[in-house]
Design goal:
This is NADPH2:quinone reductase. GO terms for molecular function: oxidoreductase activity. The protein is of the alpha/beta class. Helices cover 29% and strands 28% of the residues. Strands 3, 5, 6, 7, 8, 15 and 16 form a seven-stranded mixed sheet that branches. It has a six-stranded parallel sheet with strand order 11-10-9-12-13-14, sandwiched between helices. A three-stranded antiparallel sheet has the order 2-1-4, with no helix packed on it. The mean pLDDT is 96.
């Protein structure tokens, strides 16, 4: 089968053996894949958790049809239209744990379906389960113009947030954040953003910040979070190391929580999928929660898809179809 593999000469399409499901695995005939920032790093040889390096089939997010079940797989049958996340997505066939997929809504095509699994699971976990957002509270999404960021703002609105703040350093993308739930859009590259957030919250700061940037905004986040507020660290696009004001963190008694899928057990991931599905699925089916598709590429042009992601000018998801 065709697959996009990181080899000795970099990322390229190669012919590899079709996998077979074991245990609770499901074999998926892939129809479409969504690109993610971590994929871009792995095309350059970086490691993402336990994935990456020579011989790695790339990709983390897909939609398709169930082709075969492992002996312990439950909850789906051959022919079901599904979407999910996991390793080795950029291929004609991929394997997924039976608890790491969603049934794709009947009113959604494969291109649309492949944009959602990572954004929904990551941000339902960060905003609702870990972040503890309650109706009537305020939330800020750092890095809001990414696919997961756009979804985070929508989930916050769906859960009843009274104020949603989104950040982007790109003026064009920042201007569009209100389409996806932002009441206030700020430039996190301008230190004045902290004062804008404080003004919007009567000087208190937001109840919750979901941070995909980190780096230089880490201590700024502390100033923009209310006393006894929460910060959930999801991503580190702005850097993994930076100055951190420990005294301000303690003085404001902020609950600072780090999350990642990379160190979670399959049982934890199954629970994340279960909670997101039970809480959000009516909103997914009714299109209250959805992501824009920036551009669709054929699988043979997957290299061009990554060039577009690397240019960092897109808003929404880049999709590759098989």
């Amino acid at each position: 089968m065709k697959a996009y593999v990181y080899g000795a000469n970099g990322a390229e399409i190669a012919d590899i053996a079709k996998p077979s499901p074991k245990g609770a695995q499901v074999l998926i005939r892939v129809h479409a894949c969504g690109l993610n920032r971590a994929d871009l790093g792995m095309t350059k040889g970086h490691v993402h958790g336990g994935a990456g390096g020579v011989g790695t089939v790339l990709g983390m997010e897909w939609s398709g049809e169930v082709a075969e079940l492992g002996p312990d797989a439950r909850g789906v049958k051959v022919g079901d239209k599904v979407m999910g996340s996991g390793a080795a997505a950029f291929a004609e066939y991929t394997l997924a744990d039976h608890g790491r997929l969603f049934r794709a809504p009947s009113n959604m095509n494969f291109d649309e379906a492949c944009t959602l699994p990572i954004a929904i699971t990551t941000m339902h976990n960060a905003v609702v389960t870990v972040g503890g957002l309650q109706s009537g509270q305020s939330v800020m999404i750092q890095g809001a113009s990414s696919g997961v960021g756009l979804m985070a703002m929508q989930i916050a609105k769906f859960k009843g947030a009274k104020l949603v703040v989104g950040s982007s350093t790109d003026a064009n993308r920042r201007a569009r954040l209100k389409e996806f739930g932002a009441d206030l859009a700020v430039d996190s590259g301008d230190p004045a953003w902290v004062e804008q957030v404080l003004q919007a919250t009567s000087g208190e700061g937001v109840d919750l910040i979901v941070d995909q940037v980190s780096g230089k905004v880490a201590s700024q986040n502390l100033k923009a979070t209310k006393v006894k507020g929460r910060i959930v660290n999801v991503g580190r696009l702005g850097g993994t190391h930076a100055d951190f004001n420990f005294d301000l963190h303690a003085a404001r008694r902020i609950n600072y929580i780090g999350v990642t899928f990379r160190s979670r057990s399959i049982e934890e991931i199954r629970e994340i999928f279960r909670l997101a599905s039970s809480d959000l699925w009516p909103a997914v089916e009714s299109r209250k929660l959805q992501l824009p598709i920036d551009k669709v590429f054929a699988f043979d042009d997957i290299g061009k898809a990554f060039e577009r992601m690397d240019a960092n000018q897109h808003l929404g998801k880049i999709v590759v179809t098989l």
